[in-house]
Design a protein that fits this description.
Helix content: 25-40%
Number of helices: 6
Order of helices and strands: HEEEHHEEHEHEH
CATH topology: Leucine Aminopeptidase, subunit E, domain 1
CATH superfamily: Leucine Aminopeptidase, subunit E, domain 1
Oligomer: single chain
Shape: globular
Strand content: 15-25%
Largest sheet: 7 strands, mixed
Radius of gyration: 18 Å
Strand order of the largest sheet: 1-2-7-6-3-5-4
């Protein structure tokens, strides 16, 4: 295919490839689907796929706490002491500072654990709907979501795509203040599963 090794190297590094779109848009540009590092986005709110403790964990949760710094953890500890001594229930949301993140705020939500939580579909939809409603209530125009519950919590990615896209579409129909929702996936493979199964 390549006449010289240098051409093959340029192709492998992406230099000679045609520029494919980096993101896909839905709902007249109100929803963007892409891959990337959610902790580096300059948006009004980044959604954290938190665990019930709100004290950090693995995956996106750990990355947000690491990059955001101790201010987020302090805010989460205060929420545990004052409002959620037993932890944040699945499907619920809370808002905190974003600490050192480029975003203004973090919306923490706890997704359902597949195979354990009853009504997992309803709880997963609630994560998206309540996050958007909370953002709208605080006049935040842009929100970035990671995939919720599809990692360690085991929710099937294809089913989660249908639930998430439907919930987002319903929530945006009642939240005119939200101008942009970004769905930010860790890998192209995860993004492609979402795109193949979304219901926008």
């Amino acid at each position: 295919m390549f006449e010289e090794p240098a051409a093959a190297l340029r192709w492998a590094q992406g230099e000679d490839r045609p520029n494919a779109p980096m993101s896909h848009e839905f709902l007249n540009g109100r929803v963007e689907v892409c891959t990337g590092d959610i902790t580096g986005l300059r948006v009004d709110a980044v959604v954290n796929a938190a665990n019930a403790s709100l004290l950090g964990g693995g995956g996106v949760d750990g990355a947000i706490h690491r990059r955001g710094g101790g201010e987020i953890l302090r805010a989460c500890r205060e929420l545990r002491e004052t409002s959620y001594p037993q932890g944040l229930p699945a499907g619920e949301v809370v808002l905190t500072t974003a600490g050192n993140l480029p975003a203004r705020y973090v919306i923490h939500t706890v997704g359902p654990i597949w195979g354990r939580d009853q009504q997992a579909q309803t709880l997963l939809a609630s994560c998206y709907k309540k996050s958007i409603a909370l953002a709208a209530n605080h006049s935040l125009g842009s929100v970035a979501f990671p995939a919720i519950s599809t990692g360690a919590y085991g929710y099937p990615k294809d089913e989660a795509a249908a639930v998430a896209s439907t919930a987002i579409m319903e929530a945006l129909s009642q939240a005119d203040a939200i101008e942009r929702v970004s769905l930010v996936f860790f890998s192209d493979a995860d993004r492609d599963v979402f795109l193949a199964n979304q219901q926008f």
